[in-house]
């Protein structure tokens, strides 16, 4: 029985309908919502109408298109676009039915009130709650920045030159603007909607009713688009890691202290000369080994979070995997069989960690440059959120000691790099089906996903 499942409690199905002109960051927001909800085990999926439109064009053998295609007076263009919306909606309905979807996101551009009312009608007929999410932006600099970031790399402009792509795209926006009708608190008073004005300078909420809707609202309120780096590190090698014991609150080993002393230098090197004065915020858990690891960092803002503490191994706290295998063989096997759901006697599961990390994720979205020093299981869950790693894989990811991981979220992917401290440490990686530590046996590690192979993923 899942501990946390909004959908089971409320039995709701929601469709988030994106509203806004092109280059307003709609797809980015849509994808982030899907990633966040999936991480919380809420089944969600994005249906991008542009993708359907491109597939239709391809099928009809219409090659490269320019802005004229988006002129409301161009019958060919209108035909494809209307068909694309219908197909996307149809697929979404099937997905709600066949796969028990909970939150579908319709990522479309055409935003007339008339069109919205049609969508509302279809959704209501299928007992799906519509919630409109508008990204409204009249700050031309923001728009141009967004065009440069993503649209000029859009599949519609493959091979085009940058100048042409930008101008053509601006023309396309102008054509959409002719018909655009923004969400309005009096005219649309009966609809559920969120309107973000110039990213998050102003947020207008209307008729937000269910718990699930309010989670989505709270999440998008925390998003920002400033460039930043997120550093993640495990604590330095601990005394328990030397003896292979889990849990506890032990001190760093001698090599762990060496990592702590080297960490400031690793961070500086990674920031680069021009950013060397950047002030990072540092978060640790409440356990001694993470605080000791942070103790040489020169930054003033250091915060301890109970929510970042290591997975609670309950009755197994302080034992080695071998001892667990001997004393609780059934538990040992149950954990290998479903590591995500397995909850230690009197302790926690990976799913439990994700639940307690939710406020951390919210706060993390608000933060700029940050360094988080925490524990293996917690780090796996944080990493899974940023890199969209599926639940069944995340507990098996290898995250070695004495390695600093840097994540740089970009418009459509996250760039990962890792910086090894070159200080030896024991391997604390346990593969499936053994109580031995270490990554010696590569043949069984199909499920263990090494972080290096995982870099630069486009979601
Ligand atoms: C379409 O774009 C491709 C590059 O992706 C280019 O080689 C081709 O010439 C273009 N075709 C037309 C009709 O503009
Ligand atoms: C959007 O859809 C409506 C109704 O289907 C249509 O009348 C309108 O021309 C479309 N707008 C644009 C910009 O294509
Ligand atoms: C909202 O719904 C109420 C009751 O169904 C109706 O009387 C009212 O006219 C609607 N308002 C708008 C702006 O559509
Ligand atoms: C490393 O040691 C800490 C205790 O200091 C423990 O919580 C953690 O589970 C250990 N890592 C592994 C995977 O053994
Ligand atoms: C950790 O080190 C401190 C100070 O050196 C010592 O007082 C404490 O007992 C140590 N804790 C453990 C669990 O070894
Ligand atoms: C970082 O903080 C220090 C002291 O808190 C301050 O002197 C410095 O100017 C800050 N650096 C930047 C780049 O803001």
Describe the structure.
The protein is of the alpha/beta class and 459 residues long. It has two domains: 10-220, Rossmann fold; 230-458, 3-Layer(aba) Sandwich (Rossmann fold). The chain contains 15 helices and twelve strands. It has helices at 6-10, 26-39, 49-59, 75-98, 113-125, 140-149, 162-177, 211-221, 239-243, 254-271, 288-294, 321-327, 329-337, 350-366, 376-387; strands at 14-19, 44-48, 103-107, 129-136, 193-197, 202-206, 230-234, 281-284, 302-304, 370-374, 403-409, 414-420. Strands 2-3-1-4-5-6 form a six-stranded mixed β-sheet, sandwiched between helices. It has a six-stranded mixed β-sheet with strand order 9-8-10-7-11-12, with helices on both faces. Helix 11 links the parallel strand 8 and strand 9. Residues 441-459 have low confidence and may be disordered.
């Amino acid at each position: 029985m899942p501990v946390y499942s909004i959908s089971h409690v409320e039995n709701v199905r929601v469709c988030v309908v994106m509203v806004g002109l092109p280059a307003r960051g709609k797809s980015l927001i849509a994808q982030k919502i899907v990633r966040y909800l999936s991480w919380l085990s809420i089944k969600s999926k994005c249906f991008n109408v542009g993708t359907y439109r491109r597939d239709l064009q391809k099928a009809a053998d219409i090659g490269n298109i320019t802005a004229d295609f988006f002129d409301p007076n161009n019958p060919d263009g209108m035909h494809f676009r209307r068909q694309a919306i219908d197909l996307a909606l149809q697929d979404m309905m099937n997905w709600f039915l066949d796969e028990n979807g909970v939150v579908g996101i319709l990522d479309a551009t055409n935003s007339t009130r008339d069109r919205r009312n049609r969508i509302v009608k279809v959704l209501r007929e299928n007992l799906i709650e519509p919630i409109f999410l508008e990204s409204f932006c009249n700050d031309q600099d923001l728009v141009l920045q967004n065009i440069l970031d993503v649209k000029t790399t859009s599949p519609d402009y493959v091979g085009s030159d940058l100048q042409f792509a930008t101008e053509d795209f601006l023309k396309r926006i102008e054509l959409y603007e002719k018909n655009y009708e923004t969400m309005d608190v009096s005219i649309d008073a009966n609809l559920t909607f969120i309107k973000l004005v110039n990213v998050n300078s102003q947020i207008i909420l209307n008729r937000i009713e269910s718990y699930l809707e309010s989670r989505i609202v709270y999440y998008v309120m925390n998003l920002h688009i400033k460039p930043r780096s997120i550093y993640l590190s495990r604590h330095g090698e601990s005394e328990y890691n030397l003896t292979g014991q889990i849990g506890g609150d032990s001190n760093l080993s001698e090599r762990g202290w060496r990592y702590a002393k080297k960490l400031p230098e690793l961070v500086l090197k990674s920031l680069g000369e021009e950013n060397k004065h950047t002030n990072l915020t540092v978060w640790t858990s409440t356990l001694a080994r993470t605080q000791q690891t942070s103790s040489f960092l020169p930054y003033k803002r250091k915060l301890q979070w109970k929510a970042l503490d290591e997975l609670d191994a309950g009755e197994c706290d302080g034992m080695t995997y071998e001892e667990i295998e001997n004393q609780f063989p059934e538990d040992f096997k149950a954990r290998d069989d479903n590591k995500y759901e397995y909850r230690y006697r009197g302790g926690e599961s990976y799913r439990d960690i994700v639940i307690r990390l939710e406020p951390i994720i919210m706060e993390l979205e608000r933060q700029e440059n940050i360094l988080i020093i925490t524990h293996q299981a917690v780090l796996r869950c944080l990493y899974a959120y940023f890199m969209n790693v599926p639940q069944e894989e995340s507990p098996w990811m290898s995250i070695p000691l004495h390695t600093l991981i840097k994540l740089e979220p970009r418009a459509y992917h996250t760039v990962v790099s890792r910086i090894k401290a070159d200080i030896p440490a024991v391997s604390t990686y346990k593969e499936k089906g053994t109580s031995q530590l270490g990554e010696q046996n590569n043949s069984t590690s199909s499920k263990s996903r090494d972080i290096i192979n995982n870099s630069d993923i486009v979601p």
